[in-house]
Structure formats: C-alpha cells, structure tokens
Predict the 3D structure of the following.
Amino acid sequence: MDSEQLRLLDLALTWQPFGEPPEDEILIAFGISVPVFRHRIRRILSAPKATGPGASDPILRSARTALRSYLEAGDFGAAPWGP
C-alpha cells in the first residue's frame, strides 16, 4: 500500500463511526469527489493484495472489517475514471 492509499483509508476510518467524510474534507484532502473517494476505497479494499497473502497487514485487515459498507455498496455511482 502506498502513502496515498493509507491517507484515503485513514480518512475513511476516522469518519467511519459518523458515516463517511464530508464532501468538503475529501475535496480539500484529495481533490476528488465523494463518488471517486468511495471508488478508490473499494478498489484498495478489494485489490488482490487485500485478499491474498498481503491481507495479513493489520491496517488492511481492520480496514476491511470497519469499512465493509464500502465493499457492500458495489460500484454504483462511482466514477470509473481517475486513478
């Protein structure tokens, strides 16, 4: 996981008890919209490394559990463009 991915997960985990980060906080921190943020979180959590041997990473393991709602939401409404 790179530093950008860790920052994305950190923001999502910080706001998880309250729902998700506010749109303005996502925009300021990453310069992206909420749908792109959701898409990137899902991509991080569902990447092969997230489910394979690298899944033993404690940050990733706890993030997958805490942010399950992002995975269950699917990709509906997510912008498929952007890194």
Summary: The radius of gyration is 12 Å. The longest helix spans residues 3-15. Residues 76-83 have pLDDT under 50 and may be disordered.
